[in-house]
Amino acid sequence: MSRPQTRLVDELFALxxxxxxxxLLDRNSxxxxxxxxxxxxxxxxxxxxxxxxxxxxxxxxxxLSQLENQCGPLAHISIQYQKVDLVIFPHNNQIVxxxxxxxPLGPILRKLRDSLNLHIHSQLAKLARAxxxxx
Length: 135
Prior knowledge:
Blueprint: H1 3-15, E1 19-26, E2 31-36, H2 46-64, H3 68-71, E3 77-80, E4 85-91, E5 94-100, H4 106-116, H5 122-126
Antiparallel strand pairs: 1-2, 1-5, 3-4, 4-5
């Protein structure tokens, strides 16, 4: 792995202690880095993590990027499970996927926007996860 990729992964872990895992892929879906925070237990086996991260984020980004001509560039995708949150985003012709402890996404999105110069709407970066209500 090249030095800039190592630095990017280290910078992402340093952004917030809620970040559990970072995957970095090239645009050909080649997994360049797959690293779990050292003091965190994975919720899934490592072989599954590598297989999932090598296929799902590129597929999702490629599919949703089809609307970019009409809607503008894709900034990020966030997915929330009960036990983990995922954020996937394009960065410097690569795909970055992070998993983090559940909680408000606004602070993480703001840190990603500010540190990586991502084009995340400032209003969205201010939002915290709203309480779920039944409708």
